[in-house]
Amino acid sequence: MERITEEQIRHVAELARLELKDEEIRHFGEQLDKIVDAAQQLNELDTENVAPTSHVLDVRNVLRDDKVKPSLPREEALKNAPDQQDGQIRVPSILE
User: For residue 22, is it left (φ>0), alpha (ψ between -120 and 50) or beta?
Assistant: First the structure.
């Protein structure tokens, strides 16, 4: 696998709006090389008889089934609202 170049690190840093010194770029390059080496070790594993999975553990839905039931009456829902208008909870605008 091709190693990550200093040019690529500079490019990604520029995209992320990061200012990196030459020493930092070399340091990150060394760290990224170690990460690539670790990932390449996975290619050495014999996975011939291993079924593909998306998770290490079995994933199952632990949520309850939806049940239709009456909702809270509007008056009850608005009872503790600090501000309301036209049957709705009124909140401050956050858009400028």
Answer: alpha
Residue-wise pLDDT for 15-26, tens only, equals 999 999 999 999
Beta bridge partners of 88: 85
22 membership: H or E segment, kind and range: helix 22-42
Residue appearing with tokens 């040019």? 7
**Chain mean pLDDT for the chain:** 90
Indicate the DSSP class of residue 89. Answer: E
Joined together, the tokens standing for residue 24 give: 């930092």
If you ran DSSP here, which 8-state letter would residue 86 be given? T
Alpha carbon distances (Å) from 69 to 22, 36, 72, 78, 96 = 63, 54, 10, 19, 39
pTM above 0.70, yes or no: no
